[in-house]
Amino acid sequence: MADCIFCKIAAKETQARVIREDDDLVAFYDLNPQAPTHVLIVPKKHIPSLSGACRQDIELLGKLQYAAREIASELGIAEAFRLVLNNGRKAGQSVDHIHYHLMGGRRLMWPPG
Ligand code: DGP
Questions:
Q1: Which of 9, 29, 91, 110 is deepest in the core (most CB within 10 A)?
Q2: In b/e form, how buried is each residue of 16-29, taking b as 16+ CB within 10 angstroms?
Q3: DSSP letter at 111?
Q4: Rounded to an integer, what distance in angstroms lies between the CA atom of residue 61 and that of residue 112?
Q5: Which of 40, 82, 84, 102 should be mutated for ligand 1, with most atoms under 8 A from CB?
């Protein structure tokens, strides 16, 4: 998608602090971190939201989650982290390209705001 910021990061048209990339996904530090460790895990395929995903995306969605688990280990937060997916404006989604937030490095309260 031409005007999607996460597509631009995946295509290297916009800079980001990328920590992982493969054929399917890219992971990079969030511009506006909400925890000492805050990484976004994003598929290269443009999927607007989880509600916009289809059955063909099931394997890709699993890859995103497994990448989160591996990145959490690599970044030393495997013992306690949170994986968040905001779906829809009222749930806090501001970028219309599906992404997981991987957060850790501090005590994470529940329920979230
Ligand atoms: P959400 O509100 O769930 O859609 O999360 C979007 C996140 O994306 C938000 O935490 C800030 C982050 N973000 C937005 N634009 C950029 C960008 O250009 N670079 C990086 N690294 N993060 C961005």
A1: 9
A2: beeeeeeeebbbbe
A3: S
A4: 23
A5: 40
Please name every residue paired with 41 in a beta bridge, in sequence order, or none if there are none.
27, 100
CB 15 less than 6 A from any atom of ligand 1: no
pTM of the model: 0.98
The structure tokens 């054929």 sit at 23
Averaged over 80-95, what is the pLDDT? Answer: 98
- Residues 16-51: pLDDT tens digits? 999 999 999 999 999 999 999 999 999 999 999 999
Which domains occur in the chain, in start order?
5-104 (3.30.428.10)
Q: Indicate whether residue 92 lines ligand 1 (CB < 6 A).
A: yes
Tokens standing for residue 5 = 């910021």
Name the residue with the closest Cα to ligand 1, atom 18: 5
Q: Which pLDDT does position 1 carry in this prediction?
A: 84
DSSP assignment letter at 13? S
Ligand 1 pocket member 86 (CB < 6 A): yes
Question: Could you confirm whether 99 is annotated as catalytic?
Answer: yes
